[in-house]
C-alpha cells in the first residue's frame, strides 16, 4: 500500500520541457538540498569514526524530537490551509522545542567531553583541542541539517522523478520541488552552523552567541510562514 | 550450508535477474544467462566458505544473499511480516539469554569444544586512515594499532587476519585475545573496554550473523513499501539499536542477541512515523512551512 501525497492545492501543469524533467531533475533536486552536507561529510566527517557516530546520533535525536512534536500536534491535523495562523503557532512551538533539545544536547556533550578527557589523561595523550570540540559540534549540526533535508525535502521528492512537475502558487514559473530543495539547503546550513555557534556560546558563556541561534532559527521559520500567508 | 547458499544465489537470484531482464529488456539469451548465473552462484559459495578470498568479495556475496532472502520475505502480507519480526525478536531474546535456550546451549557447546560456531557471519574489518588526527582521536587510533601489533602477524594495514584477537558481536562470544603479552594486557584491557564502551572495537573485526542482516533488511524493505519517510526512520532506528547492542556487548561481555533491540526500535519508529510523523511533515512541507 503506497501512501498518496496530496498535491492538489498546487497548480499542476505539464512542464514545457517535459522530456528532460526526469531522473536527472530528481537527482538534481536531491543534490541541491544535500550537496554541501555531503561534501562536508566526505571531506571532514568521514575521516574520523567518532564524528560519524556523532552525526548518526544527532540525526536520530532530531528525528525523535520531530516525532514528539508530531505526536503533540496530531490531534489538530490536518490543518485547514485557508486559515494560516495555526502554522505560526506550529512553528513557534516546534522551534522552542528544538532549541530546548539543543540545550539538552549540550549537557550530554559536556558529560561526553569529560569522559573523553579522562580517557586521554589515562593514556597520557593530549586533551581535546578546541578544533576537536568544534568538529564534534559541526558533526552534531550536520546530523540535524541532513535529517531536516531528508525528512522535509527528500521524502516528498518522489514525484519529481516523473515526466511533469508542479509549480508554486505565488511564483508560477518556479517548480515546487526547486523551492523546497532551496529552502532545505538553507535550513541545513542553518542547523549545521548554529550548533557550532551555540556550543561556542555555551562554553564561553557568551550571551550574544547563545541568543543568536534561537533567534535565527525562529526568524527563518517565521519568514517561511509569512511567505505562506501572503 | 553451502548447498543452501547455492540455492539462494541460484534460484532466488535467478528469479530477480529474470524480473530485471524482463523490465529493462536486456538482450541476453538463456544459455549465456544460465552460464553466468551458475558461475555467480558457484563463486558465491566459495566466497562464503573459503577465507582466502578478498574480504570485499566475501562481504559483497553475503550482502547479496541477505538482500535476496529479504526480498522474498517482503512478499509476505503486511501484518504477517510485522508479527513475524516481533515474534522472531522475542524468540531470539529467549533463545540466547535463557539457560535452556537452544542458541545459548549451542554457544556454550562451541566454546567447550573450542570451535567456531557454524554459521554465516558478516565480518566488518576496520579501515585505518593515515592522516594526522589530534587530541583523543590519536589516543584511540594508537590504542588500536598497539593492540594489533601485539603478536598479530597481520601483514597489511587494511587486512587484519582472522585470529583470536577479535571483538565479536551478537551470537558470538567476545573472546579476549590469547596472543597478548602478559605485561601489556592490563593497559590493553582498559583501552579495550573503553573503546568497546564507545562502540569502536579494539582490534580485528566485528562479526554480525547473517540472519540479523536479513531481518533488518526485511524490516526496512517493508517500511519502503509504505513511504520514503518510514525508510529513513527505520534505518536510523536500526542503526541506533545496533549501537545499543554493541554497547551492551561491551558491558556484559557475553553472547547477546542482535535482533531484539533493533527490531524493537525499528517497529516502534515505523508505527510512530506512519501514524504521527507523516501527516505532520507532509502538511508542513507541502505548504513550504519548514523549521
UniProtKB/TrEMBL annotation, chain A:
<feature type="transmembrane region" description="Helical">
    <location>
        <begin position="135"/>
        <end position="157"/>
    </location>
</feature>
<keyword id="KW-0914">Notch signaling pathway</keyword>
<dbReference type="Pfam" id="PF06105">
    <property type="entry name" value="Aph-1"/>
</dbReference>
<feature type="transmembrane region" description="Helical">
    <location>
        <begin position="20"/>
        <end position="43"/>
    </location>
</feature>
<keyword id="KW-1133">Transmembrane helix</keyword>
<protein>
    <recommendedName>
        <fullName>Gamma-secretase subunit APH1-like</fullName>
    </recommendedName>
</protein>
<feature type="transmembrane region" description="Helical">
    <location>
        <begin position="85"/>
        <end position="105"/>
    </location>
</feature>
<dbReference type="GO" id="GO:0007219">
    <property type="term" value="P:Notch signaling pathway"/>
</dbReference>
<feature type="transmembrane region" description="Helical">
    <location>
        <begin position="211"/>
        <end position="228"/>
    </location>
</feature>
<feature type="transmembrane region" description="Helical">
    <location>
        <begin position="177"/>
        <end position="199"/>
    </location>
</feature>
<keyword id="KW-0472">Membrane</keyword>
<feature type="transmembrane region" description="Helical">
    <location>
        <begin position="50"/>
        <end position="73"/>
    </location>
</feature>
<dbReference type="GO" id="GO:0016020">
    <property type="term" value="C:membrane"/>
</dbReference>
<dbReference type="InterPro" id="IPR009294">
    <property type="entry name" value="Aph-1"/>
</dbReference>
<comment type="similarity">
    <text>Belongs to the APH-1 family.</text>
</comment>
<dbReference type="GO" id="GO:0016485">
    <property type="term" value="P:protein processing"/>
</dbReference>
<keyword id="KW-0812">Transmembrane</keyword>
From TrEMBL, chain B:
<dbReference type="GO" id="GO:0070765">
    <property type="term" value="C:gamma-secretase complex"/>
</dbReference>
<keyword id="KW-0333">Golgi apparatus</keyword>
<keyword id="KW-0914">Notch signaling pathway</keyword>
<dbReference type="GO" id="GO:0016485">
    <property type="term" value="P:protein processing"/>
</dbReference>
<dbReference type="InterPro" id="IPR042524">
    <property type="entry name" value="Presenilin_C"/>
</dbReference>
<dbReference type="GO" id="GO:0006509">
    <property type="term" value="P:membrane protein ectodomain proteolysis"/>
</dbReference>
<feature type="transmembrane region" description="Helical">
    <location>
        <begin position="79"/>
        <end position="100"/>
    </location>
</feature>
<feature type="transmembrane region" description="Helical">
    <location>
        <begin position="232"/>
        <end position="252"/>
    </location>
</feature>
<keyword id="KW-0256">Endoplasmic reticulum</keyword>
<dbReference type="GO" id="GO:0042500">
    <property type="term" value="F:aspartic endopeptidase activity, intramembrane cleaving"/>
</dbReference>
<dbReference type="GO" id="GO:0007219">
    <property type="term" value="P:Notch signaling pathway"/>
</dbReference>
<comment type="subunit">
    <text>Homodimer. Probable component of the gamma-secretase complex, a complex composed of a presenilin homodimer, nicastrin, APH1 and PEN2.</text>
</comment>
<dbReference type="InterPro" id="IPR001108">
    <property type="entry name" value="Peptidase_A22A"/>
</dbReference>
<dbReference type="Pfam" id="PF01080">
    <property type="entry name" value="Presenilin"/>
</dbReference>
<comment type="similarity">
    <text>Belongs to the peptidase A22A family.</text>
</comment>
<dbReference type="GO" id="GO:0005789">
    <property type="term" value="C:endoplasmic reticulum membrane"/>
</dbReference>
<feature type="transmembrane region" description="Helical">
    <location>
        <begin position="31"/>
        <end position="50"/>
    </location>
</feature>
<keyword id="KW-1133">Transmembrane helix</keyword>
<comment type="function">
    <text>Probable subunit of the gamma-secretase complex, an endoprotease complex that catalyzes the intramembrane cleavage of integral membrane proteins such as Notch receptors.</text>
</comment>
<dbReference type="InterPro" id="IPR006639">
    <property type="entry name" value="Preselin/SPP"/>
</dbReference>
<keyword id="KW-0378">Hydrolase</keyword>
<keyword id="KW-0645">Protease</keyword>
Amino acid at each position: 500500500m503506497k501512501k498518496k501525497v496530496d498535491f492538489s492545492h498546487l497548480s499542476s501543469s505539464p512542464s514545457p520541457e517535459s522530456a528532460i524533467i526526469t531522473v536527472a531533475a530528481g537527482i538534481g533536486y536531491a543534490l541541491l538540498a544535500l550537496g554541501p552536507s555531503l561534501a562536508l561529510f566526505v571531506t571532514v566527517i568521514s575521516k574520523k569514526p567518532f564524528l560519524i557516530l556523532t552525526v548518526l546520533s544527532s540525526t536520530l535525536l532530531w528525528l525523535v524530537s520531530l516525532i514528539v512534536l508530531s505526536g503533540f500536534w496530531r490531534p489538530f491535523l490536518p490543518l485547514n490551509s485557508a486559515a494560516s495562523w495555526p502554522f505560526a503557532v506550529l512553528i513557534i512551538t516546534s522551534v522552542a522545542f528544538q532549541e530546548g533539545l539543543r540545550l539538552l544536547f549540550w549537557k550530554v556533550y559536556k558529560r561526553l567531553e569529560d569522559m573523553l578527557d579522562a580517557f586521554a589523561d589515562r593514556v597520557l595523550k593530549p586533551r581535546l583541542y578546541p578544533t576537536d570540540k568544534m568538529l564534534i559540534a559541526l558533526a552534531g549540526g550536520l546530523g540535524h541539517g541532513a535529517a531536516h533535508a531528508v525528512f522535509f525535502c527528500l521524502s516528498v521528492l518522489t514525484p519529481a522523478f516523473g515526466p511533469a512537475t508542479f509549480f508554486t502558487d505565488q511564483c508560477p514559473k518556479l517548480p515546487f520541488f526547486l523551492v523546497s530543495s532551496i529552502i532545505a539547503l538553507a535550513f541545513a546550513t542553518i542547523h549545521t552552523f548554529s550548533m557550532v555557534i551555540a556550543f561556542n556560546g555555551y562554553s564561553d558563556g557568551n550571551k550574544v552567541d547563545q541568543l543568536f541561534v534561537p533567534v535565527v532559527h525562529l526568524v527563518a521559520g517565521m519568514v517561511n510562514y509569512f511567505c505562506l500567508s501572503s | 550450508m553451502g548447498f543452501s547458499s547455492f540455492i539462494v544465489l541460484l534460484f532466488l537470484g535467478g528469479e530477480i535477474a529474470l524480473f530485471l531482464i524482463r523490465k529493462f529488456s536486456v538482450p541476453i539469451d538463456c544459455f549465456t544467462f544460465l552460464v553466468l548465473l551458475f558461475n555467480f552462484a558457484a563463486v558465491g559459495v566459495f566466497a562464503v566458505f573459503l577465507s582466502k578470498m578478498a574480504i570485499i568479495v566475501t562481504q559483497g556475496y553475503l550482502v547479496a544473499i541477505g538482500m535476496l532472502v529479504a526480498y522474498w520475505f517482503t512478499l509476505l502480507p503486511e501484518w504477517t511480516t510485522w508479527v513475524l519480526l516481533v515474534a522472531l525478536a522475542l524468540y531470539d531474546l529467549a533463545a540466547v539469554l535463557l539457560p535452556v535456550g537452544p542458541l545459548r546451549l549451542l554457544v556454550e557447546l562451541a566454546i567447550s569444544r573450542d570451535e567456531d560456531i557454524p554459521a554465516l557471519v558478516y565480518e566488518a574489518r576496520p579501515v585505518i586512515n593515515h592522516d594526522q588526527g589530534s587530541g583523543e582521536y590519536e589516543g584511540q587510533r594508537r590504542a588500536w594499532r598497539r593492540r594489533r601489533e601485539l603478536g598479530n602477524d597481520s601483514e597489511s594495514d587494511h587486512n587484519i587476519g582472522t585470529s583470536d584477537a577479535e571483538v565479536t558481536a551478537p551470537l558470538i562470544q567476545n573472546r579476549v585475545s590469547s596472543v597478548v603479552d602478559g605485561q601489556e594486557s592490563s593497559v590493553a584491557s582498559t583501552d579495550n573496554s573503553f573503546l568497546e564502551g564507545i562502540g569502536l572495537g579494539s582490534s580485528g573485526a566485528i562479526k554480525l550473523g547473517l540472519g540479523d542482516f536479513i531481518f533488518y533488511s526485511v524490516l526496512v524493505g517493508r517500511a519502503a513499501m509504505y513511504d520514503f519517510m518510514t525508510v529513513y526512520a527505520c534505518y536510523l532506528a536500526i542503526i541506533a539499536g545496533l549501537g545499543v547492542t554493541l554497547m551492551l556487548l561491551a558491558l556484559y561481555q557475553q553472547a547477546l542477541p542482535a535482533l531484539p533491540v533493533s527490531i524493537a526500535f525499528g517497529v516502534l519508529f515505523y508505527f510512530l512515523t506512519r501514524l504521527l510523523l507523516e501527516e505532520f511533515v507532509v502538511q508542513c512541507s507541502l505548504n513550504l512551512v519548514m523549521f
